[in-house]
Amino acid sequence: MRSQPEWSQVELEWDETRSYLRACIEQVNHLVQQLDAARWWQTEPQATLLQDTRGAHSALVELAQQLDSILLAPEGARRDQVAWMEMGDATGNVTLAIAPLSVYATVEQELVRKRRSAIFTGATLRTGSSFRFIRERLGLWDVKIATVESPFDYKRSTLLYLPTDLPPPNDSRYQPLVEQAIVDAAVAAQGRTLVLFTSYQQLRATGDVIRTQLDRQGVLLLQHGQSRREFRENEQAVLLGTRTFWEGIDLPGDELRCLLITRLPFAVPNDPLVAARSAEFEDPFNDYTVPDAVLRLRQGFGRLIRRATDHGVVVLLDSRAWRKEYGQQFLDALPECTVRRTPLSNLAGEVRKWMAKAGGDR
Asked: Which residues, 6+ apart, have CB-to-CB distance to 319 below 8 Å?
């Protein structure tokens, strides 16, 4: 966009707007100083109003700085940051965004150097047996590493179902088979099923097709954006989710019995931030795209088993995990589960058997 002739007009208009914004910042700062001198911080509600005014001043300062970086691209900004614009088709809204290519400088300056010690913990910091990817992203090379094994017995608690006859996602037969797999698994598990997608488009298309079939079986269909509480309270429900649902939902015990992962969670290659970060590598697919997707898969997999007494089935509906050379990295990154490799037509029966076994173990 910056290479277009019209961009010079954008810069001129921002330069004029910036002068008004800076005047506003100075006035708000002057107001804060006056309120501070008047001891507004001593009593309520004045103290809260003073704090809100300080917050508004900080937000305006940050806004001016960020827009300078996005619109004027000062020296050095393009080397360690990437800026982009998003346009809403329906609303006509325009969003300007900027993000660092890497957070390691911020982590070092704002956290590591300011503390006598720092401990970084997480359940999904490794890709396979290596911490290399996360250490590169965070710049944590001069650190000691340790692995604490999971307290969960995945071999006993988790069935990993890999359908042997499922075509790859780019095959025209793939989507209908995914839809049927969701219905079969959800009915067999009597609801309590979470389906993770990598795109809203596939999620919506799938929901439109399977809703009627599930209704006939007495299973409620809920989609991303609907109440998670409704899913918890309904004994027979299927929840379709994407993005935040891969890592931001906790459904312990019988709240979740079956988890279906429709695709390996590769980042969208033309996403501005992904494209910019990929450009840093000689082999971006193997050095960035695959490790990043492996971490995301582990996060999604972790939605099922939340307590030592949990049981359930994970269905991976992306045959690239066992047909592509890189796919083994995804399977190796998962805990050692009980694995079934059979045709998709056996899915419902395998889910029922595993649920019955789980009930017997309890």
From this structure: 163, 166, 167, 168
The per-residue pLDDT for range 17-37, each reduced to its tens digit, is 999 999 999 999 999 999 999
DSSP 88-154: -TTT--EEEEEEES-SHHHHIIIIITTSS------SS--BTTB-HHHHHHHT--SS-------SS-H
Tokens (6 digits) for 191: 């609801």
pLDDT at 76: 47
Sign of dihedral through CA atoms 113, 117, 122, 127?
A: positive
Mean pLDDT of the region 151-179: 94
Distance CA 226, CA 241 (A): 10
DSSP string over 39-78:
TGGGSTTHHHHHHHHHHHHHHHHHHHHHHIIIII--TTHH
- Compute how many other C-beta atoms are within 10 angstroms of the C-beta atom of residue 303: 22
The reported pTM is 0.81
Please tell me whether residues 50 and 158 are part of one structural domain: no
Q: Is 250 in the same domain as 299?
A: yes
Q: How far is CA 181 from CA 12, 127, 317, in A?
A: 56, 28, 9
- Residue 145, pLDDT score: 87
How many helices (H) and strands (E) are present in the chain, helices listed first? 15, 9
For residues 303 and 188, membership in a common domain is answered with yes
- The predicted-structure confidence for 74-108, as pLDDT tens digits, reads as follows 654 556 788 888 887 777 888 888 888 888 888 88
The verdict on 87 and 219 lying in the same domain is no
Instruction: Show the domain range for 165.
Output: 154-361
Question: What tokens were used for 346?
Answer: 């056996």
Identify whether residues 270 and 204 lie together within a single domain: yes
Residue 24 CB burial class (10 angstroms; 0-12, 13-18, ≥19): middle
Report the C-alpha gap between 196 and 226 in whole angstroms: 15
Q: Is the peptide bond before 45 cis (omega within 30 degrees of 0)?
A: yes
Q: Are 187 and 57 found together in one domain?
A: no
At 233 the pLDDT is 83
Q: Do strands 94-100 and 81-87 pair parallel, antiparallel, or not at all (unpaired)?
A: antiparallel
